[in-house]
Amino acid sequence: MLPKSIGKLQNLQTLDLKHSPMDALPVDITKLKKLFHIPAYSYQLNLERRFLTGRGVPIGEGIGSLLDLQKLCHVEANNGRGLIEELGKLRQLRRLGIVNLMEEDGPNPPRYLRSLGLQGGLSRLLDWLPILQNLVHVILVNSKLSYDPMEVLEPLPNLLELGLSNAYVGECFCFTELGFQKLKILCLYGMKGLKTLKIHEGALPVLECLAIQPSPQMEVPSGIRLLKTLTMIDFCGMLREFAFSMRPQHGQNYHIVEHVPRIFFHA
Description:
This protein is mainly β. It has helices spanning 81-87, 150-153, 240-244, 254-257; strands spanning 37-39, 42-46, 51-55, 57-58, 71-76, 95-99, 115-119, 137-141, 161-165, 172-175, 185-189, 196-199, 209-213, 232-236, 262-266. Strands 1, 4, 5, 6, 7, 8, 9, 11, 13, 14 and 15 form an eleven-stranded parallel beta sheet that branches. A two-stranded antiparallel ribbon has the order 2-3.
């Protein structure tokens, strides 16, 4: 629990609350007009699905008055329009993490965001996501979407890193021609029903790192052979037959990955 006197620290630029047992951010922080960074998160490791989940801190009204704020993660959504409307006032905000966001939590996001993390169930991706043209880093955790989110994400022109953890309950991801033109890192975690990656020619032209874990039903994606810039693939929790099929010389799918310098398999 932060004391109310925190509001007297008028020159404070960073309020580091990582892994602190905070029930809520105090209203008095809205008096700290020079704040740049508020890291206020803690993580738990999901051993079954092998990814981290974050706990958000509830935030009160008035956060939109901190006009110099650049980093705010992770905060708990308030299941209404208030939070996102407040955040939309933060023109300097570049990194944002929100836990348990709902579709109705909109509609005015901070347009100049470079990093966005969303945790919690969504029936569809938020309507305002495509307008965030400056995004370079996106993470979706526990979204459990029923449709392929790639059609919404792949037009983002500056996206460099994409991480999806238990974000999709379907069987196929489709990467279309001219999709993800700048993406360098793609991580697909905790989607056990995923069977197919359809990678069309022209998609992911500069991808360097691909990580998949665990998707035991997945077929070896034949489109990997089109990804000439790949330098590393990391597979975890896949079937033994899946790994054996990519063994040098003897694997029937080795020709798909033979151009990749580093390939890792983990139990």
